[in-house]
Each structure stands twice: as structure tokens, then as C-alpha cells.
Write a structure and sequence with these properties.
- There is one protein chain.
- The chain contains 11 helices and 3 strands.
- The protein has helices at 3-15, 19-30, 34-41, 45-52, 62-80, 88-97, 151-154, 161-175, 178-189, 193-203, 207-217, and strands at 99-100, 115-117, 122-125.
- A 3-stranded mixed beta sheet has the order 1-3-2.
């Protein structure tokens, strides 16, 4: 395996998908160029390019992780038609101004859990894989956009399949490393192949693969 392929695999284990795929997935629905997205999340354009091409593996700043997570959730809402296009600029401005509210340091593991308002310019975002010691998300994955779901109703809003999948990924990656999950899957494969498949899909696979598994078994 060459270095780039190795780095991409590390990003998948950390974030659920390569960062290049994350950027391409979110930029289009939000109408952002790569440079504009870098500005929103607080990275230089060259640094974001290095992460996308897997020249670099990790995002070292937890606040940047938080903003990228928030942008990812916003893109999901845009794709699902759950937020008006006219509201996107305001939401992006809010993300740009926000700081990640972390209680402990992290090496920048990313998905995708809940985003909670914590005041005018602070958000707390479970990264694309929840760091150890962080509390599990407990409320709606995105604060209501203007004209959207009122806060008091947010807890009763059915989460999207992608949000559920990310929560499952967060749980697996919070309790075990990719190597441990692969070992557990190998041990279960002979007698419980479906369990082994589940472990690999959510514990070490890409978010797209986990989503396909979820939709297949959650009809």
C-alpha cells in the first residue's frame, strides 16, 4: 500500500470517509468552492487541499473539526430539502463565527452526531467519530433554521438515516479501535456472519457503506 492509500485508510478509520469525499459531498449542496469552504471552517486553502489529497491525515484543531461537522450536517439538510436555500448564507456565517466547545483535547476524529446551540457564537459538535470521554449526543442533529422546526419540537423530530448511521459509527469508534473491531468481526464470522458484517460496516467501513447496510436492513 503506498503512502497516499495508507493515509486515506487512516482518514476512513478516523472520520468514516476520506476528507476529500467529505469536502466534495458538502461543497456542492451549499454552493461553496473549496476555497470558500476552507474559509468557513477556519483552514487555509492549501491546508484543506493537503487534507483532501491525503498528503495530511488529521485535522489538528478541534474547532475546525466542529465547524466541518456542522457544515456536513447543514449539507445533509440542504440535500434533503429541509432548509430553505435563502437560509444557507446565515447558517454558514454562524458556523464561521462559531467555536468548538470541547471539554478535552482530541486528535480530530470526525462524524457525525448532534450539533447544539450553546450561545450566540458557540457550538458543540460530536465529531465524525466521538472522542473518548465525550457525552453522547442527546438532541436534534441541527439547531432549527429560521422558519424551521421550533426548538421545543426538535427532540421529537425523526432523524435522517444518515444521522442514525453516524450515531452508530460514533458508538463503535468510541469503544474500540479499527483493529479491535476487525478482530472481533473475524472471530464472529464463522458462526455469526451477519454480526461480522455489521461490525465491519459500522466499525471500520465508509459512511456510504454503513448507510447502504442500514437501508438494506431497516426497511
Amino acid at each position: 500500500m503506498d503512502q497516499t492509500a495508507h493515509n486515506i485508510q487512516q482518514q476512513i478509520e478516523l472520520y468514516g470517509e476520506p476528507l476529500g469525499e467529505v469536502v466534495r459531498r458538502v461543497a456542492g449542496p451549499l454552493g461553496l468552492t473549496q476555497s470558500a469552504l476552507a474559509q468557513v471552517i477556519g483552514l487555509s486553502a492549501p491546508m484543506l487541499s493537503q487534507l483532501m489529497s491525503a498528503q495530511r491525515v488529521k485535522i489538528g484543531n478541534p474547532a475546525v473539526v466542529a465547524r466541518l461537522r456542522a457544515v456536513s450536517e447543514l449539507a445533509d439538510l440542504a440535500v434533503a430539502g429541509e432548509i430553505e436555500p435563502d437560509h444557507l448564507p446565515d447558517e454558514l456565517d454562524r458556523i464561521r463565527a462559531a467555536t468548538g466547545a470541547y471539554t478535552s483535547s482530541t486528535t480530530a476524529q470526525l462524524p457525525r452526531g448532534a450539533v447544539h446551540s450553546l450561545g450566540e457564537n458557540r457550538i458543540s459538535v460530536a465529531p465524525f467519530a466521538t472522542p473518548g470521554g465525550m457525552p453522547a449526543p442527546t438532541s436534534h442533529p441541527w439547531p432549527s433554521a429560521p422558519g424551521g422546526v421550533p426548538p421545543e419540537q426538535a427532540a421529537n423530530t425523526t432523524p435522517s438515516a444518515r444521522a442514525v448511521v453516524r450515531e452508530i459509527q460514533d458508538l463503535f469508534r468510541a469503544v474500540a479501535s479499527a483493529e479491535e473491531i476487525q478482530s472481533a468481526a473475524a472471530a464472529a464470522a464463522e458462526h455469526s456472519p451477519a454480526v461480522a458484517e455489521l461490525l465491519l460496516a459500522y466499525g471500520t467501513g465508509r459512511t456510504a457503506d454503513a448507510l447502504a447496510h442500514y437501508e438494506k436492513h431497516h426497511a
